Inverse folding.
C-alpha cells in the first residue's frame, strides 16, 4: 500500500512539474507582437491622450495600457530614437524615421506602455509613423 501511494505521489508530482514548466516556457517564449500590422484599438489626438492620463492615470491605464493606438500631434522634440509629440507623448522607435522634423504634424501608431508620473509623459513603444 505504501509503495502504491508513493508511485501515485510521484506521478502527480511529475504532472504538476511538467505543467508548470510548459506554462512558464509558453509565457516566456510567446511570439512578439507586430504593432505595425495590428489594427489600432484607439485613434485620437495626442492632447486628448495626455489630458486623460494627467486627470486619471488609473482609468487611462485601464483603457489604453498595452493597447495599439494611433495618435495625431505636432512634433515638439526629436532625440535619439524618440519623438515627443505635444510635449507630453514620448514615442519610441526601433529606428529613427527620416521625416521627423520639429513642428511637423504627424500620426504615430504604437503600443501604450503607460504614464511616467515623474515627467508627466505618456509613453509609447514600437512606434511607426503613419502616412
Amino acid at each position: 500500500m505504501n509503495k502504491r501511494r508513493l508511485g501515485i505521489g510521484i506521478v502527480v508530482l511529475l504532472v504538476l512539474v511538467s505543467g508548470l514548466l510548459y506554462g512558464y516556457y509558453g509565457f516566456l517564449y510567446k511570439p512578439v507582437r507586430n504593432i505595425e500590422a495590428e489594427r489600432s484599438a484607439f485613434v485620437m489626438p495626442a492632447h486628448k491622450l495626455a489630458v486623460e492620463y494627467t486627470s486619471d492615470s488609473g482609468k487611462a491605464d485601464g483603457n489604453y495600457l498595452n493597447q495599439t493606438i494611433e495618435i495625431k500631434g505636432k512634433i515638439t522634440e526629436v532625440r535619439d530614437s524618440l519623438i515627443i509629440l505635444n510635449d507630453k507623448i514620448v514615442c519610441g522607435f526601433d529606428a529613427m524615421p527620416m521625416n521627423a522634423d520639429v513642428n511637423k504634424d504627424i500620426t504615430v501608431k504604437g503600443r501604450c506602455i503607460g504614464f511616467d508620473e515623474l515627467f508627466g509623459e505618456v509613453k509609447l513603444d514600437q512606434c511607426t509613423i503613419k502616412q
